[in-house]
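Marked as duplicate of an earlier ticket. Keeping the data here for the record.
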Amino acid sequence: MILNKKYFRIYFSLFFVSYSFSQEIKVVATDSSKTENLDEVIITATRTIRQLSSLPLPAQIISKRDIERSNSIRLNDILNEQTGLITIPDFGGGEGIQLQGLDSQYTLILVDGVPLVGRSAGTLDISRITVGNIKQIEVVKGASSSLYGSEALGGVINIITETPKYGFNGNTNFRVGAFNTADLSTIINYKKKKLGATAFLNRYSSDGYDLNKADDLKTVDPFSNYTLNAKVIYDFTDATSLFVSGKYYTQNQDYIASSTLKGESTINEWNSHLKLSHKYSEKWSSYFEFYTTKYKAKDYLDDENNSRFSSSYYNQLLIRPEIRATYNPDDKNAFIGGLGLNHETLDRTDFTIQPEFNSPYLYLQYDGNLTEKLNVIIGARFDSHNKYKSQFSPKAAIRYELNDNLAIKGSVGSGFKAPDFRQLYFDFTNATVGYTVLGYNAVSTAIPELEAQGQIANIIVPVSEFQQQLNPENSISINIGFDYMLSSVLKLDLNLFRNNISDLIDTRIIANKTNGQNVFSYYNVNKVYTQGLEFNTTWKPINQLKISGGYQLLFAKDTTAENAFEKGDVFARENPSSPSFQLKKEDYFGLFNRSRHMANLKLFYTIPKWDMNTNIRGTFRSKYGLLDSNGNNYLDTYDNFVDGYTIIDFAINKSFYENYQLSLGIDNLFHFTDSQNISNIAGRIIYGKLNIQF
């Protein structure tokens, strides 16, 4: 599909006529502190440079220093160690991120401010992202659709990659470890006068691992992947600059379904990103951005006779032009606004058509320091769409400094998650079992076809109910907390959160088939919520030692289920042969795959005279339920649970001759595994790493 040319004319005209939009990197900060050389600055929360400690929103930064010292090699490794974040494996082997108890489909993943695509079943696999060229990771919690639109219902994670540095320099990292895992990264930087460039190459491979020795299949099959990223920056003048970047990722993996069915899967992903920035005065600046990305995946299985048993493909394209402006009337107030268009297409196995989404959007935000102690942010975004109802997403945040050591803050915002291609156009029938899954928009044509073929025994939900649009999922997110600096070496923060989600998209049976199976489709019905608290603390008693810790308490529940338990409509059995008994309201545990408690503790210690640093990091996850084991369709205290577990990682890094560093470490020190329930924890991993600076 080709983007309509009228949109390009509109956006280019607006850009060159108005010259009123901002650049993300060079914008002047709206804090009382104007310097950009702050210890911790964040862009994602407001799309302007802000000092993290002055932000009225719940956010955190994962620094390059912490990433390097922990010797992480993939994004999922480092995110698992953060408060309130946990990676969840999906049925296809990918890992999505759960944030404040919300599924991975509700967290927007950005790289340098632009989104990744490739959510085949709602999950964006973050294990495909290397950390070798990451400058910092920014995590913003709570609905962020007022700036970022769909998929930011629960929050945003923005991966900021390295930009060119002055002179010529670079480094090479090589890490080898258990399961014949090898990670090789090289980054080269060059910058002189007006021109800057950086190139990054990563190769990552593994023989995979097997948690269950009872069968002939591996938990993770052997794979290898490559990431190539390049950036060029050119400063035409002090006020005008051009940014161009490109990325290519490819992966090949064995695909073994049984002793007789074998094949392979491949992924190819690329993106290009162009940004033209201009600063007109001390008050006005702008940029025009054009971004396009494509994600392609294919897999096949052949039988023992080398005949094709099955194959599938997935081909998604996103094109997004955007223009943005920032206006700073004075040192205390700032306005940012922008408009753009998301154009998406998808060609996929088991789809009724090749769909096309067009979604123009407009957003505006005010960020003001009304007094020296009071900061207020008010913003909103409007998203139109050719396939679902338009969305208006407002947000407001406030921070007030009670004194030099204590500040309170709060935010409330609206978020939304648009129905994805799968929920609208899926047309899949399982060849072995015989059930069928239809996207909402596919029902009106697919059901009559199945009837004509004699496959429908009974229609439960009339086709007429699918004449309207499937609504986006919506949320109201509330965060209230405080930042407390007990002393210059000890600080803590507490955040209370609540996310109310309505119009949740779920599946239901819409027809019975003559083969005894069912036809499923999607609909808006459930209301769920997640609520709890997050606590973080950092203590640095001496320059050589930093201790940090975090804890999350989470309650994630379905309001329909709560009502059923409260009315006494839910029953359970302790075992299949025992009589059923009525459950109480307090017996309802909540949503599946959510832990009530999660915590982390990290200790980093530096020994300057030996040019050495070491760290030990621990994460804890309490029990959680993956399925209903007593047949009442809910997760209650009488179901079977996955036991809680703790992971301990250890690393030591020693520098030699100024430009060399040797690292040794053990991930999952005590060799925790759970072959029945947890597929993404491989066991103890012993590794070594060499870093060379040049």
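See parent ticket for discussion. The helical segments are 5-18, 64-70, 75-79, 145-148, 421-425, 443-452, 559-566.
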